[in-house]
Amino acid sequence: MTAQYSTADMEALFESVKNWGRWGKEDERGALNFITSEKTAAAAQLVTSGESVSCSLEFPTQPAPDNPRSAQHMMVVAGDACTHGAGIEAAMDFIGVAFHGMAVSHLDALCHVFVNEEMYNGFPASAVLSTGATKNTVMAAKDGISSRGVLLDIPRLRGVDWLEIDQCISADELQAAEAAQGVTVDEGDILLIATGRDERRRIKGPWSPADGLAGLDASCVAWLHDRKVALLGSDGVSDAIPSGNAEGWPMPIHRCGIVAMGLHLLDNLRLETLAQACARHNRWEFFFVVAPLRVKRGTGSPVNPIAFL
Amino acid sequence: MTAQYSTADMEALFESVKNWGRWGKEDERGALNFITSEKTAAAAQLVTSGESVSCSLEFPTQPAPDNPRSAQHMMVVAGDACTHGAGIEAAMDFIGVAFHGMAVSHLDALCHVFVNEEMYNGFPASAVLSTGATKNTVMAAKDGISSRGVLLDIPRLRGVDWLEIDQCISADELQAAEAAQGVTVDEGDILLIATGRDERRRIKGPWSPADGLAGLDASCVAWLHDRKVALLGSDGVSDAIPSGNAEGWPMPIHRCGIVAMGLHLLDNLRLETLAQACARHNRWEFFFVVAPLRVKRGTGSPVNPIAFL
Amino acid sequence: MTAQYSTADMEALFESVKNWGRWGKEDERGALNFITSEKTAAAAQLVTSGESVSCSLEFPTQPAPDNPRSAQHMMVVAGDACTHGAGIEAAMDFIGVAFHGMAVSHLDALCHVFVNEEMYNGFPASAVLSTGATKNTVMAAKDGISSRGVLLDIPRLRGVDWLEIDQCISADELQAAEAAQGVTVDEGDILLIATGRDERRRIKGPWSPADGLAGLDASCVAWLHDRKVALLGSDGVSDAIPSGNAEGWPMPIHRCGIVAMGLHLLDNLRLETLAQACARHNRWEFFFVVAPLRVKRGTGSPVNPIAFL
Amino acid sequence: MTAQYSTADMEALFESVKNWGRWGKEDERGALNFITSEKTAAAAQLVTSGESVSCSLEFPTQPAPDNPRSAQHMMVVAGDACTHGAGIEAAMDFIGVAFHGMAVSHLDALCHVFVNEEMYNGFPASAVLSTGATKNTVMAAKDGISSRGVLLDIPRLRGVDWLEIDQCISADELQAAEAAQGVTVDEGDILLIATGRDERRRIKGPWSPADGLAGLDASCVAWLHDRKVALLGSDGVSDAIPSGNAEGWPMPIHRCGIVAMGLHLLDNLRLETLAQACARHNRWEFFFVVAPLRVKRGTGSPVNPIAFL
């Protein structure tokens, strides 16, 4: 099902979708620039029912095949401190997470990926120091990312519960989903791609994404570029794994998207509830808000994106 | 400036604002129940300019007098891994935080505070185990908290840059701020109280909140209850420190608010930018979205709340 | 191969080896009291070759079936900070570990295990608060544990490379190993039991100890008590898993040893190199030093115990 | 009191004490090579009383002026889990530490410091990656460091309780201390320098070492080299702060010691108890054991070094 590309094809594709310099030499926001205030204001008008839906997985504290380095959640002080005479009438806890894991709903900043030792807009990989990133950090999204969200539900299109772990989604299929759902992806939109990962995990149990994960193939790169998508998210990691492309060119969505286009990604979303809500409301557009933590030198953030219908 | 109360006064006040059982014996959402879908939908219509403003401080990785246990931000892999031949073309990091600190913008869940070994709705403190909370967790807010936000800017009312660290705000002053700003706090609103803490910190440098922090006094408790506020936030911790109340009755807003009323709190917000934006737009209401991480047994979450004008 | 006991048997065994009160009502050192200064001085005389052997596994930063919650090792600052102009001429790192895992060489303090809500010497389990232990902490070993060490090499006795994961070691076999090796366990000794776990892991790959782990059966409890062993260690966790005892009585070595006898344990040692060195020197006794971190309210510590031959 | 050096002096000093290549081009052990098995065996014979003394501070979990990034100690599960019906009859905890802080007793590996982007034996700073060190790691000391220890007690020599924070120790004074104490530092010894920091901290309270810390001046570099010291430790960080040397040449002991000589350092020891024990025994030599955690790519380790008299 996956399109095959030569290394030269991929390099040409990468060059063809480059947004470097498009918003100035010092720009660190990339495709977020497609979201104007007017776009956000118009998107907020989509909130008609007032129903809000979380698109985040639970904070993944339990080890699992897709969570080999589980997040930390530890109490600093629990209820025993007041029931056993320690005089503290509060409970507090600690959370810690290497959030670029495969079980954490998170935002990838533009410093997350390099191609040939370069980041989006030509900043060198060496600007991401062991003490933190100095370019293309998550602070580009410090005031949140808020726009019209569109969900394309591929299992629904295919009439299945979920995509199998070796299946890819092509640009043609994205267009087919648009047509089937009666929705069109526009400039500045936040595009979410459901592959049914939540359902598959619930029914068949967790698996290591190294064994395969449904996602977009390289044919989608130009389409995303043409549509001027501002932010791309998926219940997987947008890329299919393995990506089935030329050797040395894994992860075309991450590499062409983040590095060439300046496209932030949302990985490992939970889209099952949103897909159900959209079907119930018979609408596939909504107001979508992502509010990353303001980590000054960060490469992204765990997030709990909210869709408002 | 602080009203003085006897212990008996405080106990009576606590009883008088109790919402235990109001939304059922098993309720863990408390005053969030004041936010209906209709309320959220109406609030979203307040987004007219599309301007979005973060109300979060930066993730506090640097030790300071108000940040003695600074948050962790460490790289898992930086740019050197691709520039020195390690073959990894991505950067990743780790964040960790005991988020109930005084320099972290965070949401307090209803399991955060106890009075007489009890939590909101009468659940025992012992339900907050060393392995995590089992009642009144942050999951009550898992789909986000979104409603009409109202900012009351007390330094603006007083004509000062900031409140001094030993100053309290009374219920009368909240009403005066409403009148001066031409805004009224309604059922289900998210109320934000600016004390000018950001400005004071920037000009005078950080200080330990143990030395004093401006906030609401106990007279505000009944007012918050009457107005049916759904969520209360401040650039401080809502409570004045010290609270100036009866001995053994510190933190009346935390104790009466969280425990008796079931009122979630947002602590240590950054409200300077929002206050400026509100003044510029000459409006003090906005759509407000808080999206905590979904920590299943958590006592709260670091957050980056977004106000939309 | 495992002896079977009734619940009543186990309860009687527990009572029969209780050292509560033996060294005073406030004692928190338990069997460490068997090590006198004279014992330590005599043991140091065993250092004849000057060869030192670490008995610790590597700090387990990689997830594995026996390491589902791998330890953290992250750089705070690496070499790039000086090679890319950040002006820092030092490298620093962070380590973090929930050290009671099955892949961490660690010392169990006497507050690690409870039986019927009690710890060694009758202190209540509630003395181990969410803010840390207040009784029977690792500080009992703050000046290190140093005595004569004796290794009993069970695979050597049996003529195998390793014990299978469902095999138990009885008291009779410990005595047989003594006889075969020409060594006798005396009062105040540190006893190490090799089961060949390192070799098995190296050859067959890691496995989850929940699937089975070789170790001592309940018949060893009285023997350890009679011999006045001061500290017990193993390449496993001393207990066989499953322990094959009466229902509700798992982990007899942990429960009778730590709780009744006040016997500290060393879990998940690496004994392969030590066994080879002992065979080469044809001696099974040595000076043995364990130096836990001084964690004031700690339940143990990761350690790198050193054997001197 | 501090000797003044020009930059050229320091560069010449650095060159003059270089041990690069002395133990082969691939050597990563440096001055640890001075410790032979015979040396260790002879040192063990110094254990006559059997008294053991910890030279480690408590694991520093409390913020303080000398501990701005305090270590983490959090319970994973406490006693409440068995007293409140959760069925877990064990307590477990987590420790985490960026151990190169000024309140942590720790070992500096040879990859900890760079001069002109180089480490000991000429390895490049770039070999210390954001994913961990690949040369000169703490694994050089994986089997522990064990040798004759010698304590030089400078406050005792001067007849004071402690050295003030702006005072330096010269090579002449080290020799004077040897004479006064009747002890001589030999090849392969572990040298400990007491400055009275513990006493000063206890009496006057903690202070930031950035404000000053007693230690050795640059005149000691050649002396340490001549004496073939294998490991150097102090209750401070061996270097005086500020070091009072040529501009751009801070920390001569760290830079000449670690980088040129390949001398591991022990920082922030607690030497008060050892000094008292030595005085009581009227001997200043002892068997000394340091057992770092085996962190494969680590720059050092927190340690609890034990002196045996």
Based on helices, strands and strand pairing, what is the structural class of chain A?
alpha/beta
Average per-residue pLDDT of chain A, rounded, comes to 96
- State the major sheet of chain A: 9 strands, mixed
Radius of gyration of chain A: 20 Å
What does this structure look like?
The structure is a homotetramer of 309-residue chains. With 309 residues, chain A is an alpha/beta fold. Chain A is 24% helix and 19% strand. Chain A has helices at residues 7-16, 37-44, 80-83, 154-158, 171-181, 197-204, 219-227, 252-261, 272-281; strands at 52-54, 72-77, 92-97, 106-108, 128-129, 132-133, 145-153, 168-169, 190-194, 215-216, 231-234, 264-267, 285-290, 300-302, 306-308. In chain A, helix 1 packs parallel to helix 8 and helix 7 (219-227) runs parallel beside helix 8. The first copy, chain A, is globular and about 70 Å long. Chains in contact: A-B, A-C, A-D, B-C, B-D, C-D. At the B-C interface, strand 2 of B face strand 2 of C.
Task: List the SSEs and their pairings.
The structure is a homotetramer of 309-residue chains.
Chain A: H1 7-16, H2 37-44, E1 52-54, E2 72-77, H3 80-83, E3 92-97, E4 106-108, E5 128-129, E6 132-133, E7 145-153, H4 154-158, E8 168-169, H5 171-181, E9 190-194, H6 197-204, E10 215-216, H7 219-227, E11 231-234, H8 252-261, E12 264-267, H9 272-281, E13 285-290, E14 300-302, E15 306-308
Parallel strand pairs in A: 7-9, 8-10, 9-11, 11-12
Antiparallel strand pairs in A: 1-15, 2-3, 4-12, 4-14, 5-6, 7-13, 13-15
Question: TL;DR?
Answer:
The structure is a homotetramer of 309-residue chains. The first copy, chain A, has helices spanning 7-16, 37-44, 80-83, 154-158, 171-181, 197-204, 219-227, 252-261, 272-281; strands spanning 52-54, 72-77, 92-97, 106-108, 128-129, 132-133, 145-153, 168-169, 190-194, 215-216, 231-234, 264-267, 285-290, 300-302, 306-308. By secondary structure, the first copy, chain A, is an alpha/beta fold.
